[in-house]
Design goal:
This protein is of the alpha+beta class. It contains 18 helices and nine strands. The termini are far apart. About 2% of the residues have low confidence.
Length: 493
Amino acid sequence: MLPLDPVTVLLSIITCIFLATVMYKPTKHVHPNYPPGPKPWPIIGNIPILNVQKPYLTFQELAKTYGPVYSIKIGTQEIVVLSGYDVVKEALVNQAEAFTDRPNVPVLMDFSKGYGIIISNGHSWKAMRRFTLSTLRDFGMGTRTIEDKINEEINYLMTLFKSYKGEPFNNTMIMNTAVCNIIVSILFGHRFDYDDQKLHRLLKLVMENAKIIGSPMALLYNAFPSLMRWIPGTHKSVQQNTHELHSFIKEIFTKQRKKLDVNDQSCFIKSFLVKQKEEKPNPELYFHDENLTSVVADLFAAGMETTSTTLKWAFLLMMKYPEIQRNVQKEIETVIGSAEPQMIHRKQMPYTDAVIHEIQRFANLVPTNVPHQTTQDVTLKGFFLPKGTHVIPSLTSVLRDDKYFKKPDDFYPQHFLDSDGNFVKNEAFLPFSAGKRSCAGENLAKMELFLFFTKLLQNFTFKAPLGAKLDLTAEVGFTLRPQEHDICAIPHY
């Protein structure tokens, strides 16, 4: 059966309103200073005014009318949206403890079941995040050890790029594999070949889930989970895809458990299994197989999807703006020459650093952020948010905040440069979010972006295929990917 069109689904839902409104009782806020917002319809809330393909655009428009803290209803779900750097910082940094939880979002729960580090809450989340950060540090995150591993992977990637001899090719699966191999080598203890079909299958599952989670069908599923469970559509694929990914992970750690040596903690999974063995029995065990499966799935998916997508934006933007590409290459030649790029070079390369920052800002990779939930009653900018409030701290509103960025809608590296060409930090640069729920792999991602970008531009010039039109419009999804396109990597001989 073909998936139903979201509009058809929505019309079907609206036909139920006549019966539903008989029983409907509108929400009455007992607190007069609850954030304002557009008047919702019965049952369907504010869905009729929402851009269901790109809700972050609607959020931007609503902020102009209702201010930086406002409320909307998607179905019967009350949501508070935070817009602009100042209020997002106030919530996620200054009042971090009050905004630490994750809400129960059906499509995200289908992926995690509440385990892991991205969607989990409470003591389990704290235990998993603490262990993850500690273990990643043990495996060299932020040190020369992981830097060498990244450069080694880039060498494999360059060999593949050179094999195309400057002819057009699609770099989507290639970049996914290259970036994935970094996190995979930490998680599993080995890398994959670029033509490994099993890995390709897993990457496709992750990419498909990221696209579905940000789709109109997922939005409707989150709004009406009881109803949408009975309606066919792409939203149902998330569970199937996740089951396949989880089965692969379980197969790996089951094999590793059978021959586990407590003195051999050469990968993340082995370290977790050793910790699991050491954990003393108590009513709240955290190092169980469900958490292991979900943590590895979280790191596998997030570690691949975000960084590889940012790099795809990077090379597309370099093709779109060849003068900026030439300026980066001039700085590489001046500072590094033909030597291997290292992280110590970054401080000596203000222009390249600024371009990488601007790529991340412009890409606006996770526009609506991962949602938050208040852990207690809290007052924010004079508005009252009761405990359990579903909160969207819009990253689009931060990365496009015209108070902090002169040309928020343009690709403009000068956002991170002063008049003398020195790199300057911009406090509204929050592509990894902020606070206690910021991306656990931020340091690894920063290393990957600098080394991949710098070493590839040191060895190649990226050009569009003859006659190709470069479209910077992003695809619809939870993460904003560039539209499918070919590139030409011209080697520097």
